[in-house]
Design goal:
single chain; alpha+beta; Endonuclease, Chain A; four-stranded mixed beta sheet; 6 helices
Length: 133
């Protein structure tokens, strides 16, 4: 095995083993969609490990922590998204806080613009108090 492959697999194993609380909160909501998905799925050609990959829909879900609010990280995220889109992936993002507070609503919000044909209806977000008044 090449040095690159060893390094790549080592990095993947570390990421896979260290699921964040936000990723753990979002995963059951993704599983309820009834689609094939993978967590920290290695994209060999792009040398990337997206948080979640909806394989049949070519959708990547990234769960971002507060470090992604910096100018440098936003630029890196934009470059990463452009690389993924050039390879035919659609990329959606949410913040850790959103995934922790309302995983089903967050998933519905980020996936609804994609108009995916899902075997299970994506859960609808709960109305906010302002919407119910």
């Amino acid at each position: 095995m090449s040095a690159f492959a060893n390094t790549f697999l080592s990095r993947w194993a570390k990421l896979y083993a260290q699921q964040t609380p936000a990723e753990a909160a979002l995963e059951p909501a993704i599983a309820k969609l009834g689609v094939r998905y993978r967590f920290q799925h290695p994209l060999w050609g792009l040398r990337l490990f997206p948080d979640f990959v909806l394989l049949d829909h070519r959708v990547i879900i990234e769960v971002d922590d507060p470090s992604h609010r910096t100018t440098k990280k936003r630029r890196e995220d934009a470059e990463r998204t452009a690389r993924l889109q050039a390879a035919g992936w659609r990329v959606v993002r949410c913040w850790n806080e959103e995934a922790l507070e309302d995983p089903h609503g967050t998933l519905a919000r980020i996936l609804s613009p994609l108009k995916l044909s899902l075997p299970v209806q994506a859960p609808q977000p709960e109305p906010t108090p302002e919407e119910t008044e």
